[in-house]
Amino acid sequence: MSSPVVFIDGDQGTTGLLIHERLRSRTDIRLITLAAAERKDLRRRAEAINACDIAILCLPDAAAREAVATIVNPAVRVIDASSAHRTQPNWTYGFPEMTPGQAERIANASRVTNPGCYPTGALGLLRPLVEAGFIPGDYPISIHAVSGYSGRGRAGVEEYEGTGTANAPSYQVYGLELAHKHTPEIQQHAGLLERPVFVPAYGAFRQGIVLTVPLAVRLLAPGVNGATLHACLARHYAQSDHVHVLPLQESCVLKHLDPQMLNGTNDMHLSVFSSTEHGHVLLSAVFDNLGKGASGAAVQNLNLMLAHQ
């Protein structure tokens, strides 16, 4: 039996390069990409995507939709790393740990949409708690996240590693129009009734994310506190290989969160911090925006799909 053919369409961006790096030495698949001269040749790209078993799309949204539209071979399965299909009902959301049975749904799907980097952390924290009824669906959620500059793609890498690095800001908050494209994705998959306020930022480090969600205990379900929320998350991820919940006794002595601590891995660490005196809880997620937030997640989904190829 021949090895499954995996085609990476768009392997020159930050996500595509890392996916290629993670896959190129594997012997259980046959990895194909297009030569530089063929990358903008629509006919050649259509030929390649229809000749593969699984296509991984690392493209801008419009180009990803265009690529999917060229598929005429019903056997072709797709992992889309763009945001083009993340809220589409006929696409399977590619966060295996999000809810029981999600890994199986991904394994059997023909169309999988990789989560965004920020939504991975937000949903990792919120979905189990909303689903359990501990956070009301109409809670006024606010989310703050700081990512490494690679989250901007090649433009971010060029700004901080190219010729003009002396002028690159050490920190910048963006999305001030409060219309970031990840917000509908977070609202839909977290099960929120109201649109959350999402405030992202970039720091002067290459990769890694710290994402936080502050909560007021008085607005949660009756009787719910930080320990309740922590116990729910710990139960939800107890069998997970990649998502880990920091024990409460460890978070009590933690003084800071390092966004780079999990770089190069496909892991995500979740924590719950609480102040009983003030009635406040802070949820946090730390992970690599190019790992669990992008290329690592794509490879994890690919492995699930290959097991059912």
UniProtKB/TrEMBL annotation:
It holds the Pfam family Semialdhyde_dh. It is an enzyme of class 1 (oxidoreductase). The keyword rRNA-binding does not apply. This is N-acetyl-gamma-glutamyl-phosphate reductase. Residues 5-106 form the Semialdehyde dehydrogenase NAD-binding domain. The gene is argC. Keywords: Amino-acid biosynthesis, Arginine biosynthesis, Cytoplasm, NADP, Oxidoreductase. One of its GO terms (molecular function) is N-acetyl-gamma-glutamyl-phosphate reductase activity. It comes from Caballeronia hypogeia.
